[in-house]
Amino acid sequence: MKVLVVDDSAVMRKVLMDALLKSGIHNIGQAPNGAAALKAIENGNFDLILMDWNMPKMDGVQAVKEIRARGINTPIIMVTTESEKSRVLEALKSGANNYIVKPFTTELVATKIKETMSK
């Protein structure tokens, strides 16, 4: 499985990549914002995208909408501090498939990936 980790924080990208590695996922790409994620998606076939919400240049929801507008159906999990129900619904309506609220555990990441990929 090839996963793209999108977050403006290098530390958070590392935390997510460590969680993926512990879950047995070793083919990992990364991007610091939504605009860079779109370029990465054009250049590589990803099986899953982990997308932060609050980023410069292009936030996660804008990126999700653009990915879906391009006809790309790769599963997307929002990974964010945005935990209000209205925000969760906004992300899901924009095209995200699942949602993880920071802070999270490695086990939660693994569970959400399995849940998302089995749909």
> Care to count the β-strands?
5
- Give a quick account of the main beta sheet: strands, pairing sense, barrel closure: 5 strands, parallel
CATH topology: Rossmann fold
Known CATH architecture: 3-Layer(aba) Sandwich
> What is the CATH superfamily?
Response regulator
How many domains make up the coordinates? 1
Assign a percent range to the helix content.
40-55%
Biggest sheet strand line-up? 2-1-3-4-5
CATH class call: Alpha Beta
Mean pLDDT: 94
Ranges with pLDDT <50 over ≥5 residues? none
> What is the overall shape?
globular
Q: Output the number of helix runs.
A: 5
- The Cα radius of gyration reads 13 Å
Please write the string of helix (H) and strand (E) elements: EHEHEHEHEH
Assess the beta-strand content as a share of residues.
15-25%
Amino- and carboxy-terminal Cα gap? 16 Å
Helix/sheet category: alpha/beta
Q: Work out the oligomeric state of the chains in this entry.
A: single chain
3D architecture notes:
The chain has 119 residues and is α/β, with parallel strands linked by helices. The protein has a single domain, classed as Rossmann fold. The protein has five helices and five strands; from the N terminus they run βαβαβαβαβα. It has a five-stranded parallel beta sheet with strand order 2-1-3-4-5, with helices on both faces. Helix 1 (10-22) links the parallel strand 1 and strand 2. It is globular, with a radius of gyration of 13 Å. The model has no long low-confidence stretch (mean pLDDT 94).
